[in-house]
């Protein structure tokens, strides 16, 4: 019993240390959990690296005094915490007790805060209307307790929704811009070690919605947010949550930003051809950019993207993400605009027919160049053949609809039975496990 | 499937699931306690599919579930936590497993869900007085037909599914504007036939399950181009037999559920190799200590154990109870809810 109490006390003391560390250095931008035996290696790394950055937080007693911090406050158990250059490491050995201490402290503070709140509501006078001259009320104290404990708790368990909510509640009561901006810093810290944390991304969306219209340079916030996603996507491959967040940002972007993003993401995509999410992001940007553009503009933008995609397809053999993107491009300019087309009957011009014929001919050429090498035993080369043939089959199924819709005259399609026969043979040979799919699709196309 | 019969380590999986509750001495287990309600659903449904749900103390479970109910009517992931629609569905499903939906104040709970559908667009910036009101009522369809997950306003097609599934289980679908809800889900469909979290969101097998199931429950599957979506879904099967959730990803047992249910609901399951998939799931078992992992030789967890067993059930693996793909509950439980109404 006493032993338990002792270890609880120790854990609580450690929690206090953690909270002090977080309070004294609000610019901590990276956190990691490592075995204490690795702390020494961290020190070595720092010695070996550029020392000029090591001064961004107070390192000496003199500096502590000059920055008005109490040196004693930053004293922490160096077998548990390691901190330098705004990087924090926590010993994996301490996590269990530290988590329990943080959870209990947070839950206790939250319960008290709720009690005070409901008391205020009952007596119908808010104890904390604004942060006025009186900064010492019980509610103010409890709020800071909730903020400190939830911070520590989230650092240890990043998807604890209750802890995130408690922070949102305090922020919305205070209506204070700097508090909201701090939340962006803090959630970025969480994402530094938990890049897929859904709650942290969601928290950021909540903050951004809250500062929209209040922050003077909102464009910059959007810009920085997009950069953050890119930074995280660099380290965390195929991160759905991160890219979903970036897609969400598009609605807040100016026209210029959309164009810039298209340019910048092109370079990124070339270096990450397997990251399908980046191509999806481009698809949304393209759709947004072309929303109010002429048919002529759409044609040229699409053509350029198709050429770029083909170059990548030929350079990186057998990448599904590139072919998925191509499927989208094959439809760009038609289906997304179908609802508009329905309002105003789309007149197919001669030029449209020529463009379409040229497009399909060049796609058939691409197919043949991919199939001609697919006899090779290398898996990537075989995959390339499957992706190419299924792309063409998929596209024809789609053009079937389009043809009905616009009644175009496509001479390339007259030879359809032969093309279908060829596709079926290639697919059955290269990907026999999906024979039933190929059979069904080819039959439904011919009919 | 009969060829693979006997390879599922039923007893060991039961033992594994029952052991999870006792393991509370590691950081990994306690740090997940905020979503214990989901864990309870995954564990208990697995036990039921394996025919072993009587091994748990029903009263103990139900009394804990009810302690997680918030005054608003919604459920939290654990006692003392904030309610969220994610945990509300799990709570309803757990009660359904034990045929105990009658302990719920059904109207209060469905009002709460309804409210999640009627929140003001700018939930992000509401004033404290609005907040008080919201905390008191709590109920969640928005103007465009979408649903928020809680009072903080995040919108996601997952929440649409949860609201629709929950209300369907409670016989209260008439409380929401299903036409609007369906309209929103359809607006999240992409050119590849799949669905994302919000309009324009990237297609993801998990989101597709939610959208297809919600459309199935509301009788709206005609909105889907089945060949187009079916094609995308069956391209999730990789050479190993396992399924991934999006292009270029590794296979993962959990997609056995999300992809397979969707293929079944749109009647295109014959486009994948079912035996190879069953083989993949069985290879992800921990044959010594029970439990199923995401991929062969990885560490097991209750989440993947549920999705593995539920996937095998969909594949009609011998000896397992059948599961309803849209409501994610055993068929006998669903039959009791829809056909044995007192």
From TrEMBL, chain A:
The keyword Plastid does not apply. Pfam families: PPTA. The keyword Repeat applies. One of its GO terms (cellular component) is CAAX-protein geranylgeranyltransferase complex. Transmembrane segments: none annotated. GO terms for molecular function: CAAX-protein geranylgeranyltransferase activity; protein farnesyltransferase activity. InterPro entries: Prenyl_trans_a (IPR002088). Keywords: Prenyltransferase, Repeat, Transferase. PANTHER family: PROTEIN FARNESYLTRANSFERASE ALPHA SUBUNIT/RAB GERANYLGERANYL TRANSFERASE ALPHA SUBUNIT, PROTEIN PRENYLYLTRANSFERASE SUPERFAMILY PROTEIN. Belongs to the protein prenyltransferase subunit alpha family. This is Prenyltransferase alpha subunit repeat-containing protein. The lineage of its organism: Eukaryota, Viridiplantae, Streptophyta, Embryophyta, Tracheophyta.
From TrEMBL, chain B:
It comes from Thalictrum thalictroides (Rue-anemone). Heterotrimer composed of the alpha subunit RGTA, the beta subunit RGTB and REP; within this trimer, RGTA and RGTB form the catalytic component, while REP mediates peptide substrate binding. One of its GO terms (biological process) is root development. The lineage of its organism: Eukaryota, Viridiplantae, Streptophyta, Embryophyta, Tracheophyta. One of its GO terms (cellular component) is Rab-protein geranylgeranyltransferase complex. Belongs to the protein prenyltransferase subunit beta family. This is Geranylgeranyl transferase type-2 subunit beta. It catalyses: geranylgeranyl diphosphate + L-cysteinyl-[protein] = S-geranylgeranyl-L-cysteinyl-[protein] + diphosphate. Keywords: Metal-binding, Prenyltransferase, Repeat, Transferase, Zinc.
């Amino acid at each position: 019993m006493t032993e338990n109490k002792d270890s609880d006390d120790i854990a609580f003391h450690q929690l206090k240390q953690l909270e002090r560390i977080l309070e004294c250095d609000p610019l901590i931008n990276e956190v990691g959990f490592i075995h204490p035996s690795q702390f020494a290696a961290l020190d070595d790394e720092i010695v070996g690296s550029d020392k000029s950055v090591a001064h961004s937080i107070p390192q000496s007693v003199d500096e502590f005094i000059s920055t008005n911090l109490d040196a004693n406050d930053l004293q922490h158990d160096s077998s548990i915490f390691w901190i330098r250059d705004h990087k924090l490491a926590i010993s994996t050995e301490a996590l269990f007790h530290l988590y329990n201490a943080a959870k209990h402290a947070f839950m206790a503070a939250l319960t008290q805060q709720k009690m005070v709140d409901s008391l205020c509501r009952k007596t119908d006078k808010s104890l904390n209307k604004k942060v006025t001259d009186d900064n010492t009320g019980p509610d103010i104290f409890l709020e800071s307790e909730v903020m400190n404990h939830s911070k520590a708790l989230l650092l240890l368990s990043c998807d604890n929704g209750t802890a995130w909510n408690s922070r949102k509640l305090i922020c919305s009561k205070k209506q204070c811009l700097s508090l909201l901006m701090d939340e962006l810093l803090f959630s970025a810290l969480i994402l530094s070690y938990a890049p897929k944390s859904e709650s942290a991304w969601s928290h950021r969306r909540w903050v951004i919605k809250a500062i929209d219209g209040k922050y003077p340079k909102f464009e910059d916030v959007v810009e920085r947010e997009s950069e953050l996603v890119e930074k995280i996507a660099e380290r965390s491959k195929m991160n759905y949550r991160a890219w979903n967040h970036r897609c969400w940002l598009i609605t807040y972007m100016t026209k210029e930003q959309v164009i810039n993003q298209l340019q910048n993401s092109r370079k990124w995509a070339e270096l990450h051809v397997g990251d399908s999410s980046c191509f999806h992001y481009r698809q949304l940007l393209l759709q947004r950019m072309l929303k109010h553009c002429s048919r002529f503009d759409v044609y040229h933008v699409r053509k350029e993207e198709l050429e770029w995609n083909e170059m990548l397809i030929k350079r990186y053999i057998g990448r599904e993400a590139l072919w998925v993107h191509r499927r989208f491009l094959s439809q760009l300019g038609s289906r997304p605009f179908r609802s508009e087309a329905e309002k105003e009957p789309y007149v197919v011009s001669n030029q449209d027919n020529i463009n379409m014929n040229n497009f399909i001919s060049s796609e058939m050429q691409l197919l043949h160049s991919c199939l001609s090498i697919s006899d090779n035993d290398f898996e990537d080369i075989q995959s390339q053949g499957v992706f190419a043939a299924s792309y063409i089959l998929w596209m024809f199924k789609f053009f079937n609809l389009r043809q009905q819709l616009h009644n175009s005259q496509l001479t390339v399609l007259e030879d359809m039975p032969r093309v279908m026969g060829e596709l079926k043979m290639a697919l059955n040979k290269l990907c026999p496990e999906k024979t039933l799919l190929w059979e069904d699709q080819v039959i439904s196309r011919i009919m | 499937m009969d060829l693979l019969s006997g390879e599922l380590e039923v007893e060991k999986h039961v033992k594994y699931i029952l052991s999870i509750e006792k393991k509370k001495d590691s950081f990994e287990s306690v740090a997940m306690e905020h979503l214990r309600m989901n864990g309870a659903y995954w564990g208990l449904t697995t036990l039921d599919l394996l025919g072993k749900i009587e091994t748990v103390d029903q009263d103990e479970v139900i009394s804990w579930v009810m302690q997680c109910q918030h005054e608003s009517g919604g459920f939290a992931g654990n006692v003392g936590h904030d309610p969220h629609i994610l945990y509300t569905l799990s709570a309803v499903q757990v009660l359904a497993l034990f045929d105990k939906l009658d302990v719920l104040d059904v109207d209060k709970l469905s009002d709460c869900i309804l409210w999640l559908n009627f929140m003001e667009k700018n939930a992000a910036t509401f004033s404290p007085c609005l907040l008080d009101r919201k905390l008191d009522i709590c109920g969640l369809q928005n103007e465009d037909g979408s649903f928020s997950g809680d009072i903080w306003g995040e919108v996601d097609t997952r929440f649409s599914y949860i609201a629709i599934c929950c209300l369907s289980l409670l016989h209260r679908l008439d409380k929401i504007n299903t036409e609007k809800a369906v309209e929103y889900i359809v607006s999240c469909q992409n050119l590849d036939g799949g669905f994302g979290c919000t309009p324009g969101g990237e297609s993801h097998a998990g989101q597709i399950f939610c959208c297809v199931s919600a459309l199935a429950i509301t009788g709206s599957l005609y909105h889907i181009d089945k060949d187009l979506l079916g094609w995308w879904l069956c391209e999730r099967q990789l050479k190993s037999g396992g399924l991934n959730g999006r292009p270029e990803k590794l296979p993962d047992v959990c997609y056995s559920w999300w992809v397979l249910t969707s293929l079944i609901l749109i009647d295109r399951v014959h486009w994948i190799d079912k035996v190879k998939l069953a083989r993949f799931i069985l290879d992800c078992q921990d044959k010594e200590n029970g439990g199923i992992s995401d991929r062969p030789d990885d560490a097991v967890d209750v989440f993947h154990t549920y999705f593995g067993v539920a996937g095998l059930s969909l594949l009609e693996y011998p000896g397992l109870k059948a599961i309803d793909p849209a409501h994610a509950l055993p068929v006998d439980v669903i039959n009791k809810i829809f056909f044995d109404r007192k």
